[in-house]
Write a structure and sequence with these properties.
single chain, about 575 residues, alpha/beta, Ubiquitin-like (UB roll), 3 domains, 5-stranded mixed sheet, about 35% helix
Length: about 575
């Protein structure tokens, strides 16, 4: 279609919005409630434009182009309306930008600056002051900072199909809330944090553990071990001002060392361990007629989702703990024995792309190391400790680095400490959707057949399509596998299972779009293009690794030889495996 934008002629595709048309012409229209492919409820009114012949200003996020349309994006009428709409939002918004988690990364704050707003023109309309919801172990909701854009509601409903939050009330009493205002820690929230990732203000943030971690680091009696998830190495660079998707593994290690952690280890070590246990579990189920399809259990948001909504299918889950939890158990048993450190003095800190990991670390099932030492050290219930003590998101780690004035870009490349820092290429791809499946099949194929895998890159299950599938020939035994990311797609596969129509033997589910690299604790913004760049870096590190199969990791082999003895053995059962519970809606 031929249109004009600010008196300049353009040809644009039909059936697109004015917002998209202007963007294709190199003009950015400000938005607050719009979220591409998810939310377009046109509630904020910030994206208005003027169209010749139209009686009112039009909201560009929902208005389609028409042949010959004359659009004006910067007329006096448009500029005044946008400014007024932002000022109306500010009327009920707290004036605490300096102490807000989203300071300098807040879309409302940015538009306030762009429109030259220097004061409050409108009085507060909301009578009551809304209470902070801190009932969740992962997230904090501050309704006072909410601008009712609806992004969080849309992503929870449309992308995750959880519907833990929604609009409540009418008129000036409108707010975003949970069922009966019970709080996110009470309702069927999966803690995935996608709501925090898309919130334009500081209305939803992760529950920070930064101060507790600093306290542990500064305590001379504590040995503070840090583990880093695979997705952190492609996210922390962004948070420190580097290009999107920067692969900064060595700099990340150097930065953590300079923060004062006693040892810098890698969650990838126990990602390799997870593959050994999970791969053998899959093979055992195939050979013994166990419950199939088996579904991966690395993503804690997904685990809570199936516990709430599909409890009848819990027996399909792998019994393996996630790599984060395996690391904590191994660090406070194997590593403690190896180094002669009292496990009660070991503090395990995880750096994760995922807010749900905060919840996972405090699940009552995650105390394998305490049970291991209980009789040996004559511990009682008052001495109880978790396998993982604190979880920090990528954003929290960036805050710590900035607090110390570390120039991240200038840090040298350093290596992880041993032995819990050794890993393979199979482990690093855990960070991308399809990575766990690919890593598991690299090992399962060779363990099952006794032959070398002919092609190590299983590209059929890579990519960003919501559900991908492939058929794998295990030397005559053919199995179908599937990969899904987002809980909306997980529902599709679970519905097949519960109706007896699933054709698969093995299924991978990741809670967040793109997998862990798109987790709720990653840098803001996170969008489709950024996720693709992070994935490219994940697969680049895999390709650069000298060893790319989990069962070839020499430190994992030593761990089994010296401590665990065998996959699925007695120690593995107590330390590395768990069970899950049915939860209500």
């Amino acid at each position: 279609m031929k249109i004009t934008i600010n008196n300049q002629a353009f040809e644009v595709n039909s059936d697109i919005t004015l917002l998209a048309a202007c963007e294709s012409a190199g003009i950015k229209i400000p938005t607050l409630c719009f979220l591409k492919d998810v939310s377009k409820n046109a509630s904020c009114g910030v994206c208005v434009v003027e169209v010749k012949g139209a009686r009112t200003l039009l909201r560009s996020c929902i208005t389609k182009v028409a042949e010959g349309m004359e659009i004006f994006t910067n007329s006096a009428r448009v500029m005044e309306a946008r400014k007024t709409n932002v000022e109306l939002l500010l009327a009920n918004h707290p004036n605490d930008c300096l102490i807000c988690d989203r300071n300098m990364n807040c879309e409302l704050q940015n538009l306030t600056y762009v429109f030259g707003i220097e004061g409050r023109r409108f009085v507060r309309t909301r009578k009551e002051h809304l209470k902070i919801d801190d009932s969740s172990l992962s997230l904090i909701r501050d309704p006072e900072k909410c601008i009712l854009c609806g992004r969080c509601v849309a992503v929870c409903s449309e992308v995750q199909t959880v519907k833990a939050i929604d609009f409540a009330g009418r008129g000036i009493k409108s707010k975003i809330s949970t069922y009966l205002d019970q709080g996110m820690g009470v309702v069927a929230c999966t803690n995935c944090g996608q709501c925090a990732l898309v919130c334009p203000t500081g209305a939803i943030t992760e529950k920070s553990a930064v101060s507790e971690v600093w306290e542990a680091i500064q305590n001379p009696e504590k040995v503070v071990l840090v583990q880093t998830a695979p997705a952190i190495r492609v996210g922390i660079g962004e948070a420190m001002g580097m290009p999107d998707g920067s692969l900064v593994t060595g700099k990340m290690v150097a930065g953590l060392r300079r923060l004062g952690f006693s040892k810098v280890f890698d969650t990838n070590f126990t990602a390799d361990l997870t593959i050994i246990e999970e791969g053998n579990e899959l093979i055992n189920r195939i050979k013994t007629g166990g419950t199939l399809p088996m579904i991966t259990s690395c993503s804690p948001g997904w685990i809570k989702f199936i516990e709430h909504f599909y409890p009848k299918s819990l027996n399909h889950l792998s019994s393996c703990k996630s790599p984060q939890q395996m690391f904590g158990a191994i660090a406070k048993t194997y590593y403690a024995e190896k180094t002669g450190i009292d496990p009660r003095n070991i503090v395990v800190v995880s750096i994760m792309p995922c807010t749900a990991k905060k919840y996972e670390a405090k699940r009552p099932e995650m105390d394998g190391a305490f049970n291991y030492w209980k009789n040996k050290l004559n511990l009682n219930d008052k001495d109880q400790f978790f396998d993982v003590d604190f979880v920090l998101t990528t954003r929290e780690l960036s805050r710590m680095l900035k607090q110390t004035g570390i120039n991240f870009a200038q840090l040298p490349e350093e290596n992880f400490d041993h032995p819990l820092g050794e890993s393979t290429g199979a482990a690093v791809i855990f960070g991308a959707t399809g990575g766990v499946m690919e890593a598991a099949l690299r090992t399962a194929y060779e363990v099952f057949t006794g032959k070398t895998l002919p092609g190590i890159d299983l590209k059929a299950i890579r990519g960003m399509n919501g559900i991908r599938e492939a058929e794998i020939d295990l030397d005559g035994t053919k199995i179908k596998v599937a990969v899904a990311h987002t809980l909306k797609n997980a529902r599709i596969l679970l519905d097949e299972i519960e109706t007896g129509k699933s054709p698969y033997t093995f299924i991978e589910v990741m809670t967040c779009p793109g997998g862990c690299l798109g987790g709720g604790g990653q840098p803001i913004p996170t969008n489709a293009l950024i996720r693709q760049k992070r994935a490219a870096s994940i697969y680049l590190e895999d390709a650069m690794k000298g060893i790319r199969k989990s069962h070839e990791n020499p430190e994992i082999l030593t761990l089994y030889n010296d401590f665990l003895k065998e996959p699925l053995g007695e120690k593995s059962h107590h330390l590395l495996h768990t069970h899950y519970v049915e939860r209500g809606y």
